[in-house]
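Today's session is about reading a structure prediction critically. Students often jump straight to the picture, but the first step is always the sequence itself: look for stretches that repeat, for charged clusters, for runs of hydrophobic residues. Only then move on to the predicted structure, which in these notes is written as discrete structure tokens rather than atom positions. Here is the chain we will use throughout the hour.
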Amino acid sequence: MAKRQHQPAPLPDNLIKDSDNKILYAYKINKEEGGFEQVLKKISTTAAASLGEEASKKFTLKDAKVLIWGDAKLEKIATSSEEYDEIKGRFEQKYGLLISPNDNFKGSDDDRRPVYRVVGGDGLIIIISQESRGQILVQRAMVAAGTLAERNFESQARQFFEADRTAPSDDLSKWSEIAFMVRRLALNTTPDKANRIVDEIFRSAPIKKYHSHAWAVLPTSVINHLKMGTYRAVDVFGEKTEFPEIRDQIMRQLKLEPGDNFSEFLLYSLGRFREALEAHPGSPIHSVLAYSLGHSMLRGVLTNTYKRLSKSDDDEIFSIYSSNYSYLAEVTYNINIENEDSYYPEDKHPYKEPTIEEKYKTLATRSFFDGYYNYALTIPDSQNEYRDGGLSLSQCVNYFNQFPERYDSKPLCRNDPSFISHTNDILKHFKEVLKDQKSPHFDDASYLLGWLEYHRGNIGTALESFEPAIKFMKDIPSEELENYDHNDYSLPAIHQVARILGTLSPEDAFSRVQKSKVLSGEPDVWNSVLTSFYHAHQYRTVMDGAKRALDTFGIKIESLPVTTDPKRIEAILKKFHLEMTSLGDVIYLYHSSREIGQIEDMLKNPGDRSPSAISAKVKEIVVKYALTDESDFEKKSSRQGPTPKHKDLRQSIYIARRSLDLLPKTPDYSKLRQWLYYKQIRLLAQFDPIKVAAANLEFGKEFPSSPLLDDVLAEQIFAESVIVGDMAKAVTTFDALRRDHPRGNAIDNAYSWMAIGWTCAGQPAKARQIDKEIIRLFLFTRHARYARERIQNPSACEALYELFKWELEAMNWRQRNRIDIIQSTLKANDSSSAEKLR
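Below is the predicted structure for this chain, in token form.
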């Protein structure tokens, strides 16, 4: 038989050999003419003939086909990973040999297309891809991946030993460098082989302190997070982990060498934090271990407390979206699935605009609270999402912060005396973290210590414990503050300090602030404390406290212009180089309190002024603090002169209420009182909607023939349907309005609120029925125009700003007050309500 004639192989573009002239890596790239399938068939047939066998693996990538012979593998580098952003080309000493399907690493970086690391053993890899100009790009790589990885590790280790040669023997700060090198070697080969090579290297190395077999099985995501000094719950491989093979490797290594020099790293990754902390007191990750132990212990205590104190529907507050992304994807995923193209699902499932029927179906089945959360009192999640089905620590703390009524608004120890004994050990672990001011969890530990001390009944210690987190933020340069990653607990600490001080007498609260160098020097603390008293309408207290606050910063309130205008206040603070601080709010609180106090004094002595003068002044102040809708915003921006307006609904409601309480019920004040009732009800509909019905009854009793009664009933419908979501009550009020005021001025508004209420309640069919009535009854009005738009596009709330802007406010209000009666009322009243609507 004649010998088969082969064409001479093209010379490689890159060639790497070892000292024995053995080829470790040969790479060739060229372009072929012809159709993609034609070139693919030719290349694969030629390679198979040359090697005597078909490719052992075949995959499909984006615009590319991959053929592999031998034991080589491709490992995807996640585009979201840190190493992806560090890639510059085909050879990276830190990350190894890399391949891009289109051989354009810069292009891959621009459009975030995947890059692959070559791992495994010896093999041939051929990648055939389609170029934009119709040419076919062919990449051939013959690799001894394992041997290359070994040589690369040896080179990196020598450089590492040389760089660390002069470091003290107890300096373990460079642990992450050697850990990453060994782990990378283990992934390119096997953990056992990596450890044999590590033993050989360290046998002759001048430095032994980093010698460990733990590095080979420690995931790179864990290494990266511990290198930054951060605890992540996703780095714990518990019994229910989605990566059991990694857990098994770690447990096997611990069983083989429980006394390894760095065994605490493996114990940490299994969630055995106490053992890890006690294993090596001088560990380079001591602060992380202390924080993780305190964190997990507190989570357990608060989870049990939550179960005991929460109500049956409180779990709904935790329906927050959490990502399923795993940081471990970057180190555990090898391409070994036939025709893999899941990286680009958009190509297989292009976007399709849903039909109106599909939108209605979505609206009818949605959860009203999904995707919404009240962040006013929240602490950061700190990457503590667990995968055991339980609550995270952040969720528990936020729950107790947001719903203090569950435990009578007192420290938890008053409700549960055992809380103190259960948290004794936790305190010392967080205090240990505070010894390390460079720890990213420094402010976290400060906050949690303060939070714990308060709930253990130690107010003074709690305030002192919050101070490091607050001072931590102050020590960061202002130009770096916004981008600083580790000051996320500073503002929550200020908020908690204000809440605690708000429970004390004014003199005690202000005295504690003034005696603390940290608290007294923080405008946000003063502002938060003063705001709590302002909300309680303690205006004299606010004025006294504001004077003390401004004195601290060298500002005399008597020397400032009398104004609540933010622009004028900001101009004043610029002279003191204190602009962009909360002192502007402090000045506002002082002058606002002074103004409201003057109104109260006037109302207590109505005989000193004429009814017309009192009426004009009361209206002026109520309107000033009642910036409620777009027309008010326009008036604010276009109004000439120095009279500003503010959205301060609580104070506007208070002024209206006090006026009604103090003004005589005489004909001279009849028109003003009717206007005050209307204004109060309109503001309550947004701020405190539960009180609207009672306010309407009071209004109706005093003025049974007022022309404004239909308007306030429309406001009640808005409150009940849109804000509270009680459609059963809204239907009753709506029927009363149509019965008693069929030609009322606000009847069209009421119809629109009912349509929006049914939409927000997940009942688009009922909403559509109301919208049809609106078109029939109010054909040439804006209400009919909006109704037609809702029928055509029921979910386009953002396009109907005037009507739908209330939805977000409604969600925020319900979260704040935990009023969620939509589903229960609809189930109980669905048939009767539907009958009434017909």
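Discussion point for the tutorial: The radius of gyration is 35 Å.
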